[in-house]
Glutathione S-transferase (Strombidinopsis acuminata), 202 residues
Amino acid sequence: MSYKVYYFDAYGRAEAIRMMFIHAKVEFEDIRLTREQFAELKAAGKFEFGQVPAIETPEGKVLVQSGAINRYVGTKLGYLPSDPLAAYEVDNLCDAINDMYMKLFQSYFGPSEEAKAAAYKAFVETSLPFFLGKFEARLAGQKYFGGENPNVFDFCFGGFLQQPNVPKFQDVVDKFPGIKAHQDNWALVFADHLASRPKCNM
Ligand SMILES: N[C@@H](CCC(=O)N[C@@H](CS)C(=O)NCC(=O)O)C(=O)O
């Protein structure tokens, strides 16, 4: 029995999990649920809080909540430091990128077209450069946020910068040389996966 990753046919909150398994060369079943399949499994109580991503361990335990899953998989596969302060440094970056995602999501799911356009403008002009500046400072010229080897945040961030909407704001990314180098390296490390993964909108 291998791990199973349950999500929709999207990158979103599951792609960092998938990338950790791929990087560690750990086999997993990539289960991309249709809305109907999701509704059935949800009704059957498969996902504790009724949402995905979820993973199922080889022992059959279903884990939910992306942050907790990232930490679990990261710990299992060696992408999370054991020192509490070092682990905090990874976690706080993961929390920060979630805050950044929330800003971007406002432009996807706003109440009107005007609100979505305003949220997107605010994301590109304010939130994105703010967070990228903070991340660039923490990267501090290293190859990975984890130093020589990637940590959980590298997977969250690396996954984010390979999303199909990134070309629309690549000019902002290009202003941060360390971040751009991370993005380019990630594209090389995951070249096979990026070329073969199912094409999704987000
Ligand atoms: N806090 C949760 C949020 C999960 C979440 O929002 N999942 C969405 C997909 S990205 C979902 O399952 N939506 C379907 C629904 O809520 O019915 C996590 O980080 O895993």
Summary: The chain has two domains: 3-78, 84-192. Residues 12-13, 51-53, 65-67 surround glutathione (CB under 6 Å). DSSP finds nine helices and four strands in the chain.
